[in-house]
Fold this sequence. Notes:
Blueprint: H1 2-16, H2 21-31, H3 39-61, H4 69-89, H5 99-125, H6 131-163, H7 168-190
Helix pairs in contact: 1-6, 2-4, 2-6, 3-5, 3-6, 4-5, 4-7
Keywords: Membrane, Transmembrane, Transmembrane helix
Protein name: HupE / UreJ protein
Transmembrane segments: 20-36, 43-65, 71-89, 101-121, 144-164, 171-188
Amino acid sequence: MHDFSLYFELGWQHILNWKGYDHILFVIVLCGAYTLTDWKRVLLLVTAFTIGHSITLALSVFKVITVKTNLIEFLIPVTILVTATSNILGGKSSRPKGVQLKYILALFFGLIHGMGFSNYLNSLLGKSTNIVAELFAFNIGLEFGQIIIVTGILLISFALINIFKVKKWNWNFFLSSAIFGISFIMAAERWPDLFR
């Protein structure tokens, strides 16, 4: 039980750590176009992302797949760029367009982020023999951290749209554009590392 609580804590601390803010940005932009009333859609999106990163996290930890760290570190901001672009191009409709495509993208992008999580988890595991339990606890911790991020961004959206009367489209455009800019810089900075 001690190992479970330790790896659970490491999981949520890892995703909420501002040093690894790329994962935080992805979760924010993934649900940033939605409001509290869209909670079912947001839950499906986050679940699709979780399924994706759980698959590659497990495959990477068990050494079934290996991908160059530099490639993954470049692809993570690309996933953020694509998601932010999708939000911006979604238009001003009350329901974001391409919802089904968003679920597929969230699952696919989760596969990429899972390989990023695996680099951190592999460094923690060392020669541990109880990998399955620790992997499960770490994944549950990641999910808990994601729920904190999603809850926070949905509450901010609720306050801005319902209390301060900011138009939903304006909030989505501002948030997605800001995250687009940050992720574009991240991708540009990591591009040269692909050739090392």
